[in-house]
Each structure stands twice: as structure tokens, then as C-alpha cells.
Amino acid sequence: MKPANFVAIAFAILGALPAVVRGQDAFTLPDAKVGAAYEFSITAQGGSAPLEWRVVAGELPPGIELQPSGILRGVPTTPRPEAYQFTIEVADSSRPPQSFRQRFSFLVKTTALHMALGGNEIANQLTPKMESGPAAVTTRPSATSPVASAAGGRASSVGGAGVTAGAGVAPPNDDDDVCPQDKSDCREDFVASAYLGLAIDTFASGETRLYLNPNAPSGPKERMVGGIDFDYRLVGTPLTLTSGHSHAWPNQLWVYGETVHGVRSSDIDCSKNATFLTCQTSLAIPNRPADQILFTFRNATSLEGFAGFRYEFLSLHPGSISPANLYLKAQAGFLTVSGAPSAAKAVHHVGLGAITTKGDFQGSYLEFGFGRNDLFAQKRLSRWKVDAYLSKRITKVISLFAQITVDTDIGPGADSIQSYLGFHFDLRKLKDLLKPNP
Fold first, then answer.
1. 0.70 exceeded by the pTM?
2. Is 438 part of any domain?
3. Is the dihedral angle over the CA atoms 146, 35, 240, 330 positive or is it negative?
4. How many Å apart are CA 71 and CA 38, to the nearest integer?
5. How far is CA 386 from the centre of its chain?
6. 3-class SS at 110?
7. What are phi and psi of 431, to 5 degrees?
8. Which of 109, 128, 153 is the last residue of a domain?
9. CA distances from 414 to 214, 408, 410 (A)
């Protein structure tokens, strides 16, 4: 083959391949520390969306993952003196596709050795003792605070005496997952929980009470309820307040679902089941919650279920201690009762609301909606709804919740107001939930 023909064929083959551009020099990422939450956003310009990100050479530090949106996020676990080296490629959706590769350098450092002494709000840090004199003692905020976590991770607490809590310092977060101070959305991508509580139908409409609690005596009608709920973030990534992006448009799409298993109050023999939530005269964290949830599932006489999509499109007060996202949602649901003469009742609606994304009341929401409820004989296709939900974490595993729902036709027809009170149990910590009480 003539050299000229070989060159022509080579150029023809190269012209048919996707365009690949490489960054020659390694980009040095900010250093990370073991045990401290880390996040770095890699942005791309040009090309045709959607973009695809992947690691094509080298290895990410253990504990760090490359998100589909091009964000490096995680908690590094393995330090080493030399930097981690890896190459990331971003490809677009054009035909033929364009791609760009860049080498990165990432140093993971070990957390400084120290001791934490004393109270909940202030930890004393002891520097290593030197041969020339005694160790110096300094104070700093608790290692479980966001500032300390960003600097060096969590410190082990060692009980001590003579340390006075600093006035005005917030108590530390006892969760294993410390939320960075510069994030306004600390929800996990997937959240699942079991719950146990009471549904109080005192102000519910006659249709609702007769359908759910027909054999209960007169007066307040209570139902023991329990179930499983979940939320999963399909699209979108929470941005940090310092990422350089506008945090006013989170653009997150969630899918969610919940089951509600109900036991009518007349179906529980409190002389034999005095520990169950319905039989208690005052609300208290139930003994052996796993057994009580199983009891509710096995003896339920009513079942409700719903699922839907929630689109969060506007961030409210992202720099406050309790930021929230404004959302739109579409939800489909049903309700059925054992022995009922008819099929399952349809309960659907669309709504507008706001949900908190960080802080002690994370997950609480207020919502207004419009839809249908086949429990009502009149205006079942034009029901206005209000749903207010408040959640407060008590321990790493348990949260207290209170909820009130309003279903009205805004007219002379029947209305329903129901309230719920109980406890949520985080299924991520299922091993703690299933431990028998001593």
C-alpha cells in the first residue's frame, strides 16, 4: 500500500470516531480528611444534554463516589501519604458523541489525634505531650458540630469533670451522619421507615367513621395504625450554598409511597394487650415496637395505600436552620376494609406544599390539594384537602410525629378532620429497632 493511501485511510478512520479531548495536566482537588463529609462539583460546558460521567482510569478514594450529575461526594475512609490519581470522562448525547477526559489528583489526610473531654457542648482538645513540658489544653466546638466535622471528623467522647457548657452553643447532633453546615438539604437519596401510632376520628365525617370504625362505641373513635413508607430521589442533587450555583431552584423529582394498616379500637382486647398503643392512657414510646408493628399488620381490618411523584422546584430560606423546598405532587391512593360490600375506594389528589429539608424537624410539611375521595356520597370528585405533618427526632432510631388532615367540599356537604399521633422508626437502623428492651 502506498504511504499516501495509508495516511488517507488513517485520517478517514479517525474522522469517524467520536471526538475525545483530554486535559493534559492533573487537576488537584481540595484535600479531604478521613471521616469528614466531602463534596466537589465538576461542571461541564457545551455539548448536548444529557451528559454521562464515569471514571475511566485510576481509582477514587474509598468512600467517595462519582454521582450521575458529576459531583464527587462521600466520606473518605482510607488516608495515604500519596495522592489518589484517577481520570474522569464526560460524554454528551450528540451523534457522534463528544467526550472530554481530565486527570485528577486527590489527597486524603488522616484526622488529627486528640482527646475530647467533658460536657455535651464543649470538647477539650489535648495536644500530644511533648518531652519539653506538659500538654497544652485548648477548647473548641464539639466535634459533632458541622464546623468541627468539616475540619476533622467526629471525636470520641470521654467523660470528664470540671467542664462547663458554653452558653448559646447548640447541643451536638448524635446521628452518625453529620450534615455539613453549607448544605441546605440533608435528606438521603433513599429514606424508608416503619411507623406505629393512633388515628383519632373524633372529627371525621359519618361516612369515614362508619367505614373505618363501624363497631367502635360512641365517642372518640381511635384506630391503631402502622405501616411502611419510603421516599426516593429520582432526579436532582442537593447543592451546597457555596457551590457557585443558584440554590433557589433545586429541581428534584421524588417518588414516594406509604401503606396504612388500621386496627379498629373494638378489635383490641386491652385486658390481654395492655402494652399496645391504643390501650395506653398516655402516649409513650411503645415497648417492643417491632412486635406491635407486626401485630398491627397481622390484625389490620383496614388498608390504605398511596404512591406518587413530588417535584421540588424552589428552595425557601436555604441559609436558615430549617430550610424548606416548595413542591408540586400528584398522588394516587386507595382504601379498603375487610367485609366491606364494595371494592376499594379511590383516594387521589394533586397538591402544592413545602417540606423541610434540614434541622430537627426535617421531613415536616404543609400541603394544600384538590382531588377525589370515594368515601363521600356527595361531591366525591371535588374534594379540597389540607395535610399538615410535623416530625421531631427523639433518638437516632425514633422520631415523634403528629399529623392532621382535612377533607372538605367547602360547602354544606360532609367534611372530615382526622388526626394522627405516633412514632417513626428508621429502617436504616433496623438492628437497633429489633433489639428487645431489657
1. no
2. no
3. negative
4. 10
5. 23
6. coil
7. -60, -35
8. 109
9. 17, 7, 9
238 closest CA partner among 178, 296, 314, 187: 187
DSSP bridge partners of 418:
405
Contacts of 218 (CB under 8 A, 6+ apart): none
User: How far is the CA of 94 from the CAs of 20, 42, 48, 51, 98, in angstroms?
Assistant: 13, 20, 6, 10, 7
Question: Nearest 5 degrees, angle CA 220-CA 409-CA 217?
Answer: 15
Question: For residue 230, how many other CB atoms are within 10 A of its CB?
Answer: 15
Mapped onto helix, strand or coil, the DSSP state of residue 209 is helix
Query: For position 431, what pLDDT does the model report?
Result: 66
> Distance between CA atoms of 59 and 82, rounded to whole angstroms?
13
- 353-404 tens-digit pLDDT: 999 998 889 999 999 999 998 888 788 899 999 999 999 988 888 899 999 9
What are the cell numbers at 363? 421531613
What is the count of structural domains for the chain?
3
Cell 433496623, located at residue? 430
Q: Is the pLDDT of residue 123 over 80?
A: no
Confidence bin at 120 (pLDDT 50/70/90)? very low
> What are the backbone dihedrals phi and psi of residue 9, each rounded to the nearest 5 degrees, phi first?
-65, -40
Look at strands 19-28 and 98-106 and give their pairing.
Answer: parallel
Identify the weakest region by mean pLDDT among 227-231, 233-237, 280-284, 400-404: 280-284
pLDDT band of residue 286 (cuts 50, 70, 90) is confident
Which cell goes with 190? Answer: 433513599
Residue 346 and residue 271 in one domain: yes
Same domain, 18 and 166: no
Closest by CA to 102, choosing from 92, 89, 117, 119, is 89
Q: Are residues 124 and 98 in the same domain?
A: no
Measured distance CA(38)–CA(238) in Å, rounded: 13
Helices (H), 201-269: 206-212
Contact 63, 75 (CB under 8 A): yes
Q: How many residues does the chain have?
A: 438
Report pLDDT digits (tens) over 30-61. 989 888 889 998 888 888 888 999 999 888 99
Backbone angles phi, psi at 64, to 5 degrees: -105, 135
Domain holding 33, by residue range, is 3-109
Say whether 418 sits in a helix, a strand or coil: strand
